[in-house]
Write a structure and sequence with these properties.
Length: 174
């Protein structure tokens, strides 16, 4: 059974292309609203559920937050693939920074991993809002993932990096 997001569809949450702009516990500048530091956010959920959800080939979407969870699970898979050959925290951090510098595609652009998951943007402003949110959430996820993928002494955590070999929803990551 797939783990779904605990964030329910709330009319008060802003959406861009059908993607909810959920609050984040972050210091990174971006369009995401601030979340309480003592409450779990969607990045915490994605990292917590990643090792279970990565085994599934199908993911039944129950709420718009599940779409974001799918996107983040795929991103974590990509990030772990980049970290796979990095033997120290410093080298892993450099690889993650390079991943963060890549252009973030939005629905309708080449390179977006899930065509049809999110609606196409209705305006360039909506596309830019979603791009900025996805960039912010990817950067936050990367920072937290480094804490999981590497131990405090800077060596790789094999129990996390082993999941780089898994394919989420049968998507091959190069």
């Amino acid at each position: 059974m797939v783990y779904h997001s605990s964030f329910i569809d709330d009319d008060e949450i802003t959406k861009a292309c059908g993607c909810p702009l959920l609050p984040l516990k972050t210091h990174i500048k971006g369009p995401a609203p601030a979340s309480d530091s003592d409450k779990a956010d969607v990045v915490d959920e994605a990292i917590t559920f990643f090792r279970a959800n990565v085994f599934f080939k199908n993911f039944h979407v129950k709420s718009p937050a599940d779409k974001l969870l799918i996107y983040l699970t795929s991103y974590i898979n990509i990030a772990l693939k980049r970290l796979e050959g990095c033997r120290t925290l410093a080298v892993g951090t450099k690889a993650i920074i390079n991943l963060g510098l890549e252009k973030v595609p939005v629905p309708g652009e080449p390179g977006f991993p899930f065509p049809g998951l999110f609606a196409l943007p209705q305006s360039p402003e909506e596309a830019e809002l979603l791009r900025n949110y996805l960039k912010q959430i990817r950067e936050e996820t990367s920072g937290r993932l480094l804490n999981c993928a590497y131990r405090t002494n800077g060596t790789p955590n094999k129990w996390w990096l082993a999941f780089a070999k898994r394919k989420f929803m049968n998507i091959v990551i190069l």
